[in-house]
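Hey all, quick one. A colleague (J.T.) asked me to put the adenosine-5'-triphosphate job into the tracker so the inputs and the structure tokens live in one place instead of scattered across chat threads. No bug as far as I know, just bookkeeping. Sequence used:
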Amino acid sequence: MASKTPRILIVDDEPNIRFVLGELLSREGYQTDDCGDGLTAVEKISKEHFDMVIMDLRMPRMDGMTALKKAREIRPDIIVLMISAHGTEKTAVEAIENGAYDYISKPFDLNETRIVVRRALEKLRLSETVSDLRRQTISRFAFGNIIGQSAAMREVYHLIERVKDNDVSVLVTGESGTGKELVAAAVHHNSPRGAGPFIKVNTAAIPETLLESELFGHERGAFTGAVSQKIGKFEAANSGTIFLDEIGDMSLPLQAKLLRVLQEREIERVGSTKTVKVDIRVVCATNRDLGKCVENGSFREDLYYRINVLPVFLPPIRKRKEDIPLLIDHFIDQYNSKLGCNIHGVEPEALELLMGYPWPGNVRELENIVQRSMLMTGGETITASVLPPVVRSGGASETSLAPNSGPLEDLDLSSLLNTNNFELPLAERLTKISDHIERFLIRAALARTGGHRQETADLLRISRKSLHNKMVRHELFDE
Ligand SMILES: Nc1ncnc2c1ncn2[C@@H]1O[C@H](COP(=O)(O)OP(=O)(O)OP(=O)(O)O)[C@@H](O)[C@H]1O
Ligand SMILES: [Mg+2]
């Protein structure tokens, strides 16, 4: 809670004004500091914490308007009150458009000044209380950084607790983006092995020919190209946990070798006959139905039983909708800190759309969309209008997610960044990702300048002509 004494920086080149305001505000119980020009103010703000700045417009070295913009860049949530003297009222109004909270006029009406300051700080305290409350609620329904209050998630927490003190193999299943890796990491960190290594191997991402030496290591000269000895992932995971991701994609010969490690708890490096003991816990994950893979012969039954001692199933988000608001709050909180935003929450209409969307990309997609909506919104909440079309239409326009169909906006960035999706050749995929991000950044810059072309071009440090061309290419004219 914001029970600490608020700190206020008074910036004016007239010592008298600094004195009068300083006296008034200390009597009100605030801590104050002061300086005589904009440049010193910006330096102070970048080094020390202030809740509020009260600043004159006309000052030497750096004027109040420039200092205001810089201060808000450094600390987006800082409250700035401008001091407007006779003749600067118009500029003071402009300052509000640039993010100042309000202005007070010279000569000061002390009572009025006191009220304006108190009200502004009260607003700050409220927004801090809201985010504190949010944090408390989230942590009540979380297991470390796994968030969720649904019965399914509580069962997952229970299972992680149950395997804490033994080394049973855990198999985490669930659709893409449901949090399998997060759970695997939690199993590791909550066990006494938590101090040891957590080694992740994505069996689907490593070429078949390399996987064996990746897992077991090799001796020098074991095969062409093996110029030096290499320690494999199993040895690297000694005294810790090995996480075998996408286990359903492993070839049958390697499955046989893995089975041996699990039975004997020892390995042989490729090209060596010496066995090495390994002390590991194995956690596997897959988004395939391994039972079916056993039936169709692509997965060994004996291995299946070995790795599936304790199954943990993560249901898709559409089956645990009660977790959606909590996850949204969690990501808002996370990205408020990461991006320096101050978003308070989601408008009811937007929340209804987010609750109704089927989330084919699960939590990963939700995280993506929350982050992006936070960047898109000009205000303090996420509104329905900043949600991507696919969410606004309740998933009905999902078919338009296919590449090359319509504006880039409709492309799902999360599917392009999905490490399990190799539909597109790399170069084409990179171009699409960079296009997507370019459009996104230009749109955000346009939103920030209210669509002013020259200002947007300046902000992005590109020419006006180049901005125009990019807007044509990204179909940004009708917005
Ligand atoms: N319950 C949750 N609480 C908080 N964050 C979550 C939760 N579930 C998933 N996430 C976040 O969503 C993203 C995807 O999670 P993760 O990588 O664990 O999914 P996955 O099931 O392994 O997906 P894939 O099958 O595509 O590999 C990560 O950024 C993760 O932190
Ligand atoms: Mg994963």
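Adding what we noticed when we looked at it: The chain has three domains: 7-138, 147-315, 319-473. The two ends are 40 Å apart (CA to CA).
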